[in-house]
């Protein structure tokens, strides 16, 4: 659209240079000499405990708070070089309490910035329709007032309103903090889906580790005074916490959290004790012996057909029946390459087995065992699920 | 109340609560009283609103002025109305409308200022933050966000002030103003009940009608609240 001239992904979209903010009457600086480069088209989470200056940092980007010293640039332009109003109309802003205008309809709320920018009515209306679809809202809501919507719907409107004039940068301050955990999870997924379409540079403030891990490409973990303790990808943060503060903030269960960040596809698949129904009994015995398994997996036309007991296989050999006629049991634990390792582990545990079958677009893709997952956790070099490592 | 039936019957026959022939005969006088009553009420309300808006703006802009403003308007409110009308009569003259309007307007200040300030303070901080964060200029925000959201509070203030002003206007009859109040007073003076009944019931009716009208205006001005009540699921 209009912003076609913006720089490509990988360039710096927002640059904070030695930014300091001291509030009158406060003992220390809220943000002390902070420098941070935020990549174009990425989602960065400013994560930290309350009072760490993450919200102050965010609000300095659109000048709701003026820095005491230092410099902030958006796409190479100093934010101080334009009026605050002009600057803010080019930056999407989403807050926890949403802050929809209660006296205006949803359509009018979404059209707030276009109206200020002087768009004509038909262009505004068209944009409102487009955004309503984009954030997954029912079009009949457009004539309603905010109080007639649920919390989750209101937050979608908040996002639509922030995106109305297609700003390259989106600032989000605890955007999903006021909704219940189930809706929060859904909104987070929607944000990620949305981001694949709009590719904004998103700065998201949160105190919720899981939220940061789930949505961010990079996490800046902040400590009191706006000190960045670690700037890393979610996986890196879990795998190699820089210091004790990071370690204690992300929690002792960071190993488990890493499981949620990585997909089954990050592991090297292996065949396991699985053979085709056309295989010979020798091959079947060999496959089981190799894995030390009491079960044999059988595939028919590359589709996993079920597990057979080793004893039944041997009995079939003695009786002279075919391998494909041995009694098979449906695999309970089946995962897909895109499933998280955590989901795979849960399935394996709850199915009371030690292995899950990977169903790769209908075909048998291999097996994954608890041992595979354990090894993945201890290794430093699994690929991250989102491929940004 | 006399226990003797006959004299009381006579009294009621000659001086009933209302004598309709009088109302028909003197309708011009009654109508003039209604119009004068309305004019006094509206002038007082308009003046009160303008002054209150200025005072409220000062109180909201400079927080420290809130206490002295509230203290002064409260003090005015406690002054007995009869005394205030009497005091102002020599200043403006008995025949000037302003002698009645000024005190009436002054009495509205406490209610109006308090409600206007409360209305603006009730605007959620998140709504203000969102407006600012989207690049709305401060003036635009006041007119298109803060003011509309304060309207329900302001209207409540106007309702209370208007109804009490309708009542107070009658008191202004002691200085020769006072619309329907003059009917009431003349009736009382002459122990002739009809004008008193007409004046009193019309001023009550006026108060109720004005109250209802403001409620209707509110429903029209604040559609989002009407819908919220409708949308109780």
Question: What features would you highlight for this structure?
Answer:
heterodimer; A: 389 residues; alpha/beta; Rossmann fold; elongated; disordered N terminus; B: 233 residues; mainly alpha
Helix content of chain B: over 70%
Principal-axes geometry of chain A comes out as elongated
Question: In angstroms, what separates the terminal alpha carbons of chain B?
Answer: 57 Å
Structural class of chain B: mainly alpha
Number of strands of chain B: 0
| CATH superfamily descriptor of the largest domain in chain A | P-loop containing nucleotide triphosphate hydrolases
Largest sheet of chain A: 6 strands, mixed
H/E topology pattern of chain B: HHHHHHHHHHH
Taking the sheet with the most strands of chain B, its summary is: none
**Count of spatially separate domains of chain B:** 1
What name is given to the CATH topology of the largest domain in chain A?
Answer: Rossmann fold
Low-pLDDT regions of chain B: 1-11
Helix tally of chain B equals 11
Kindly provide the radius of gyration of chain A, computed on alpha-carbon positions and rounded to a whole number of angstroms.
26 Å
SSE class of chain A? alpha/beta
What's the overall average pLDDT of chain A, rounded? 88
Poorly predicted regions of chain A are 1-7, 383-389
């Amino acid at each position: 659209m209009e912003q076609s001239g913006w720089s490509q992904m990988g360039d710096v979209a927002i640059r904070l240079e030695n930014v300091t903010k001291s509030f009158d009457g406060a003992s220390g600086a809220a943000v002390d000499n902070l420098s941070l480069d935020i990549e174009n088209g990425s989602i960065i989470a400013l994560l930290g405990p309350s009072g760490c200056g993450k919200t102050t940092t965010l609000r300095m980007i659109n000048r709701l708070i003026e820095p005491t010293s230092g410099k902030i640039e958006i796409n190479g332009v100093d934010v101080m070089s334009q009026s605050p109003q002009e600057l803010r109309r080019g930056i999407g802003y989403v807050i926890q309490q949403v802050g929809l205008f209660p006296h205006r309809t949803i359509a009018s709320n979404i059209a707030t910035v276009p109206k200020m920018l002087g768009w004509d009515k038909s262009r505004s209306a068209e944009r409102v329709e487009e955004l309503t679809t984009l954030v997954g809202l029912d079009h009949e809501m457009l004539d309603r007032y905010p109080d007639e919507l649920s919390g989750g719907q209101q937050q979608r409107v908040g996002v639509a309103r922030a995106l109305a004039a297609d700003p390259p940068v989106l600032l989000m301050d605890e955007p999903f903090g006021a909704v219940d955990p189930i809706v929060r999870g859904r909104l987070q997924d929607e944000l990620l889906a949305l981001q694949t379409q709009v590719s904004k540079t998103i700065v998201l403030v949160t105190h919720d580790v899981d939220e940061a891990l789930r949505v961010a490409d990079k996490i800046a973990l902040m400590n009191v005074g706006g000190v960045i303790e670690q700037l890393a990808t979610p996986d890196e943060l879990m795998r190699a916490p820089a210091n004790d503060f990071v370690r204690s903030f992300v929690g002792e269960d960071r190993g488990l959290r890493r499981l949620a960040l990585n997909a089954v596809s990050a592991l090297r698949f292996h065949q396991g004790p699985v053979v085709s129904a056309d295989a010979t009994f020798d091959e079947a015995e060999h496959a089981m012996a190799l894995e030390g398994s009491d079960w044999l997996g059988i595939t028919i036309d590359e589709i996993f057909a079920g597990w057979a007991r080793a004893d039944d296989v041997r009995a079939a050999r003695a009786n002279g029946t075919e391998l494909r006629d041995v009694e098979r049991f449906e695999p309970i634990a089946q995962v897909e390459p895109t499933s998280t390792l955590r989901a795979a582990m849960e399935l394996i545990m709850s199915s009371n087995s030690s292995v899950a079958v990977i169903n790769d677009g209908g075909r048998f893709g291999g097996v994954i065992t608890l041992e595979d997952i354990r090894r993945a956790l201890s290794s430093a070099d699994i690929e991250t699920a989102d491929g940004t490592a | 109340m006399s226990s003797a039936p006959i004299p009381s019957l006579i009294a009621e026959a000659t001086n009933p609560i209302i004598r309709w022939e009088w109302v028909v005969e003197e309708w011009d006088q009654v109508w003039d009283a209604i119009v004068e009553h309305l004019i006094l009420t509206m002038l007082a309300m308009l003046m009160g609103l303008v002054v209150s808006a200025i005072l409220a703006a000062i109180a909201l802009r400079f927080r420290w002025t809130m206490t002295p403003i509230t203290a002064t308007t409260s003090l005015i409110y406690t002054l007995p109305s009869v005394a205030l009308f009497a005091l102002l009569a020599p200043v403006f003259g008995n025949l000037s409308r302003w002698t009645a309007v000024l005190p009436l307007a002054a009495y509205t200040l406490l209610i109006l200022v308090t409600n206007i300030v409360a209305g603006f303070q009730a605007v959620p901080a998140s709504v203000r933050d969102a407006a600012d964060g989207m690049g709305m200029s401060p003036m635009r925000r006041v007119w298109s966000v803060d003011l509309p959201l304060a309207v329900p509070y302001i209207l409540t203030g106007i309702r209370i002030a208007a109804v009490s002003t309708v009542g107070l206007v009658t008191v202004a009859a002691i200085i020769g103003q006072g619309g329907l109040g003059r009917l009431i007073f003349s009736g009382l003076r002459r122990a002739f009940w009809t004008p008193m009944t007409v004046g009193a019931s019309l001023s009550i009716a006026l108060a109720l009608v004005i109250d209802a009208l403001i409620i209707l205006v509110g429903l029209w001005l604040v559609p989002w609240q009407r819908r919220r009540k409708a949308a109780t699921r």
